[in-house]
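Agenda item 2: 5'-O-[(L-methionyl)-sulphamoyl]adenosine complex prediction
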Amino acid sequence: MSEKDNERGFYLTTPIYYVNDVPHIGHAYTTIACDALARWHRARGDETRFLTGTDEHGQKIQQAAEKRGMTPIQLCDEVVTNYKKLWERLDISNDDFIRTTEERHIKVTQYFFKKLIESGDIYMGTYEGWYCLPCETYFPDAQIGDGKVCPDCKQPLTRMSEESYFFRLSKYQDALIEHYEAHPDAIMPRARYNEVMSFIRSGLQDLSVSRTTLKWGIPVPGNDRHTVYVWLDALINYISAVGYPEKGGKWEVCWPHVRHMVGKDIIRFHSVIWPAVLMAMGLNPPVRVFAHGWWTVEGDKMSKSKGNVVNPFEMVDIYGADAFRYFVLREVSFGNDGDFSELALVNRINSDLANDMGNLLNRTLQMIEKYRNGKLPPVSVFSRSRDIDTVLRDLAVSTLSDMDARMDDFSPDGALKALWALIGAGNKYIDETQPWKLGKDDPDERLDLVLRTLWEVLRLVAMLVHPFMPNTAVRIQAQLGLEGSPSDGLYPDWGWGKLTADVTVKKGEVLFPRIDIPKWKEGYDARMKARLTALAPASAGKEPPASFDAEHKPQIEIDDFKKLEIRVAKIERVETVEKAKKLYKLSLDLGFERRVIVSSIREFFTPEDLIGKKILVLCNLKPAKFRGIESEGMLLAAEADDGGEIISLATVDDSFPPGAPVH
Ligand code: MSP
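Presented output:
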């Protein structure tokens, strides 16, 4: 089905979120973007459905539950409420929320599996390969280097072998290529399309779609030693939620229009595996898979250990849902990576929201109140329209179609830029027409025209901003003296000057009060400090235990110290050591040579925390073997307590070259 045939239907999904953790800005981002798109389409009268939910099976969830001494479903039931609450606070207008532990989903997943076994697209075999536990994915040998780390998340891979059902992905290679050649918009942005196409062309292998090693999953129908591979289980949510395969179910209307929004890390699951499974089921592949970029924070990767994870609840508490929504959608070109900083958010509130949008509303309403007692001037005077007014009106009309085109391309940032161009033009129009002088120099009709033009622009602004900032739109609409929702009747014809009824404007509270930066900075610094303190609870604010200074070692001569060869080393690779829960095998760059050391720091750091760090290493320690691996040195670290439960690696800043000596 072509995009044209699809014009009136719009079924949009977010990825379903893992419930092993609390929601962060990345999750909020996808959902906010989908919400803006869904609201836009609803407002233009399209048959719209918007789905989100949670991904509740699999290793990650099982492990997270074990860690917290809960059953997996207890964990799911607890964490899912965080997501539901967040969507409420962010004004997300999803039509449904699916959990993969719900019966309606389980039965459809089993239906898929059964059908595919019957058609021969799923068959039984044995799988042996390199498996990434966190990503729950096997990787073909060709895709992994000597380091045996996951090509996606860079964590160490584990060699596994198991009896497994396989999906005949290879069979669909040509069909996928053909489909994407015919539908170049089916994967966006373009760079992702190219990436997926070359991946498909490089050859697809059949995919293991069941596990015997994992209990927390959906049992394979007829063979419950196996559970369904969690990614297959997860992808099916998109169609189980709309009642497939029931006759007369919503899916019959929705499915031809389905679009998936995902982060760039999960594009292949959605644009290779999922469409092939759908083809095997005789269903249409998604109309579009759009992959957005990732957020970093102040230039850094988000990570719990760094304490820089952006908590959307906190952002909403401080800045309000609409400002946060506006910022994430406006700040980055959708599809690219973006960097989050609270200062940038505050600056946007001050400039775009308080200054541009807020001022346009305030100035206009103030003048209508002052010069016309709050009564909306009549529209009839438009016949006397002069150039400058026509230009603004034409811009308003074209802004609508411009934004529409941007939203069709999944470019909320582009749409917002277009809207702010109109807001800017509105402010400029006030500066140029100088309404405060008109009463004196011009006939009254001229002032009527100017005020009415501004009011019409604002009426349109309320409608157009609604999908992005629903609450602000309602507030603008109320101040303009209008009833109903700003999303009413956006299409097909919102009608400039259409309203003839008596309208009285009601200037209300300022939409976005300006934030005083120095004052804000004080609060911000205090919050950051509190966050860092919370990060190291055992060491922060506590006197060190008495045992720290109780026992000094005997004094040494400087020559004793000089015997130690301590150097800066860069951590290049981090691998786990089989059957040793505490050990990491670290591959180090010492500038002039490479070394391996084995260190018992695994419980404190993820490989991601370590890779790239410049640490201090005692190089001339006699080598020793741990679990058969020779360790050629020892890294230096501080302990926060005498039990060694919190440690911090001795590091140097990035400007120091590997191999630099320490005296
Ligand atoms: N459960 C799977 C999706 C299954 S869909 C059938 C999953 N869940 S997730 O919770 O780990 O991630 C959900 C989404 O959040 C992904 O699209 C991912 O790209 C996005 N993000 C996670 N961290 C992110 C950033 N730092 N920035 C932007 N989005 C990121 O994957």
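Discussion summary: The pocket of 5'-O-[(L-methionyl)-sulphamoyl]adenosine is lined by residues 15-18, 26-27, 29-30, 55, 234-235, 262-263, 265-266, 294-295, 302 (CB under 6 Å).
Owner for follow-up: CH.
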